[in-house]
Amino acid sequence: MKSTPTLDGSQPPPLSVVQSALTAGALSGASGLVFGSVAGIIRSPHPIIFAVAAGAQWFALGTTFWGTRAVILDSRSNQEISPRQKIYISGISGGLSGGAVAALTRGRSNIIPGTIVFSILGSLGQATHNSFDASHTQALASSTAEPPTSLLQRLASKKWIPMKVLTDEEYESMLSEKLLTVEAEMAVIDEEIGRLRDEGKRGVSADAESPAGKN
After folding, report:
1. 120 in helix, strand or coil?
2. Read out DSSP for 25-64?
3. Which of 61, 69, 53, 50 is nearest to 25 (CA)?
């Protein structure tokens, strides 16, 4: 048996459709039991019965929704499924499960409302998941493309901060420019020292050759 696709359409570790549907149903049933307990205390004279009924309904909804969705995705596992198609599939699965559970628990008159409501919920849930998944993928792509920056670097990148954080290359270039400036100044100083020495030697030679110097 093929493995059941997850919410994003990828193939999870080997797990049958029935097992994954029951797992989703158990989680939904637990949520319904908790909600039913709170609502039963407020609305019903028999909160335990109300909570059990709510848990059973949500278990049936979760199981049929996930099972229907898994079967549809599994049948299209050889094709690339777009995010929009996943919304359609989740909407159809929600409508089918909502209509079926409404017919079994509340009668035929609730089939259409149940189908519409849970079709909308399924579509909205998948759209929300797609949005979070796209944001997560974009965040991962940006984190791999750009190296992480420190708080000081982020602050220094603001226009209103009168400072700048230099990269290693910029710092090396700045040091090289300063070194060239120092070397040029040292060359000028060496030339000045040489000139002064030459002038001193010429002055000594002139004094030695003058009559006063000979006497």
Report:
1. helix
2. HHHHHHHHHHHHHHHHHHH-S-HHHHHHHHHHHHHHHHHH
3. 61
Q: Tell me the pLDDT tens digit for each residue of 154-205.
A: 655 666 556 666 677 877 888 889 899 999 999 899 888 988 888 877 776 6
Picking from 57, 52, 55, 60, the residue whose alpha carbon sits closest to that of residue 22 is 60
CA–CA distances in Å: residue 171 to residues 148, 179, 195: 19, 12, 36
Rounded-to-integer distance, Cα 138 and Cα 140, Å? 5
How far is the C-alpha of 168 from the C-alpha of 174, rounded, in Å? 10
Token readout for 181 is 């400036």
- Extract the tokens encoding 46: 């028999």
Q: Which of 200, 192, 193 is nearest to 208 (CA)?
A: 200
Q: How far apart are CA 142 and CA 83, in angstroms?
A: 21
Q: Nearest 5°: CA angle at 174, between 171 and 176? A: 110
Question: Which one, of 99, 94, 101, lies nearest residue 67 by Cα?
Answer: 94
In contact, 39 and 54? CB cutoff 8 Å: yes
Please write the tens of the pLDDT for every residue from 87-108. Answer: 999 999 989 988 888 888 888 8
